Amino acid sequence: MNLPFTVDEFLALFESYNRAIWPAQAMGYALGVLATGLALWRSRAGDRIVVAVLALMWLWTGVVYHIFFFSEINRAAFAFGAAFVLQSVLLAVYGVFQNELRFRVRPSSYGVIGGFFILYAMLIYPLIGLRLGHVYPQSPMFGVSPCPVTIFTFGLLLWAEPPVPRMVMFLPFVWSVIGFVAALHLGILEDIGLLAAGVAGSLMIIHHERSLTKARLEAVKGQR
Fold first, then answer.
1. Which residue segment(s) compose the domain that 50 sits in?
2. Is residue 170 one of the residues assigned to a domain?
3. What percent helix, strand, coil does the chain show, rounded to 5?
4. Which residues touch 63 (CB under 8 Å, ≥6 apart)?
5. How many CB atoms lie under 10 A from the CB of residue 74?
6. CA–CA separation, 162 and 179 (whole Å)
7. Tens digits of per-residue pLDDT, 59-71?
8. Does 1 reside within a domain?
């Protein structure tokens, strides 16, 4: 895979981006903590706020990161930005206006893995980056950068009650593949978690839905 920019150009871009948007990174963490807490709290109003936070993160990353900054070294960033804005709209439609995303965290594999992805996006990701020499400001930051936002999204979707609308999962999955392949070539090895979140998260969400559907059908048959 040939990228239209070098590793040094990519890291320099993050440096200029992070310096320009401060203190948005701190706000990103604050919103991430808020969304995580509300997802654990279990309320309909809280559910809408959780999705609104996700929608805001995707919108910011699409417009500010991709279109305003990343496009300086990669023309494909305009398409990426449009996809991220579309994902923001889909989250708002399905989760905020139609309230089809409800978060109910249970002591199950879905709850544990979802929590791990959230922790990975917020804490483990930057710690791995630090270990690899990706020191702030030359590093992707939570809440304002594509890959941590995508990992965080899958963590929360694993906490959502089935069914999770497929339209809400599709673009994050696509980005988990695109972003991972590019990051692998750039040596951003912390993005291994991006592919894991996209593939494992999607499969687990679908499996959860099918398992519940099967259990309900068996319960109905047992009542006959």
1. 7-223
2. yes
3. 80, 0, 20
4. 81, 84, 85
5. 18
6. 26
7. 999 999 999 999 9
8. no
Task: Count the domains in the chain.
Answer: 1
- With H, G, I as helix, E, B as strand and everything else as coil, classify residue 93: helix
Q: How many CB atoms lie within 10 A of CB 184?
A: 15
Q: What is the pLDDT of residues 102-152, one digit of tens each?
A: 999 989 999 999 999 999 999 999 999 999 999 999 999 999 999 999 999
How far is CA 75 from each of CA 4, 80, 92, 144, 207, rounded to the nearest angstrom? 9, 9, 27, 20, 37
Give the pLDDT confidence score for residue 218 in this predicted structure. 67
Dist. CA 43–CA 164, nearest whole Å: 17
Residue 21 lies in a domain: yes
Q: Both tokens of residue 48? A: 């809408």
pTM exceeds 0.70 for this model: yes
Give the residue among 100, 84, 85 at the shortest CA–CA distance from 50. Answer: 100
Please indicate, yes or no, if residue 126 is contained in any of the structural domains: yes
